[in-house]
Amino acid sequence: MLSRLIKTTQATPYLLHDYDQTLLASSSLVNVQYQQNDYQALLEHIQKGSDQGWILFLAPPGKPNTQFFENAGIDKSRMLMIDANKVADKLSLLSTLLQSNNYCTVVTWVNELSEQTRLSIQADAELTNTSCFIYCKH
What we know:
Blueprint lengths: L1 H7 L15 E3 L3 E4 L6 H9 L6 E4 L7 H6 L7 E4 L7 H11 L4 E6 L4 H14 L2 E6 L2
Parallel strand pairs: 2-6, 3-4, 3-5, 5-6
Antiparallel strand pairs: 1-2
C-alpha cells in the first residue's frame, strides 16, 4: 500500500504542499499525521535534517519505494524496515526502538493513538533525541 501511495506521488514534486496543518499534531520530535498518504513532513525532515543515521520503517502498510526516496535525495542505504507480520505489539516495540538510540528517525503506522500514548512516545523520543513520525487512521 505504501509503495503504491508513494509511487503515485512521483509524478508530483517530492515535497507536497496540499495538506491541512490543523490535522497535524506534533512536538519537536514526534509528528502525528492523520492523513495516511501525506509524507511531506517526513520528507522535509529527512532532507533538511543534519543527522545521517538510520531511518527505520516500523510495520509499514506496504514496502516503501526506495526509488522515491532516492529521487528525493535520500540515500536508500540509510533505510531499514521491520515487516508488520513480524511485530506483535507495535507501540511497545516503538518505545523500545526510540529508547535504543540506534535510529535518527522512526516511522510507523497505527490505527489509533491516545493522547497518553502519544505523550509516552514523546518522552521516549526525547530520551535519545530520536525523531518519530506516526501515521494514524483515527
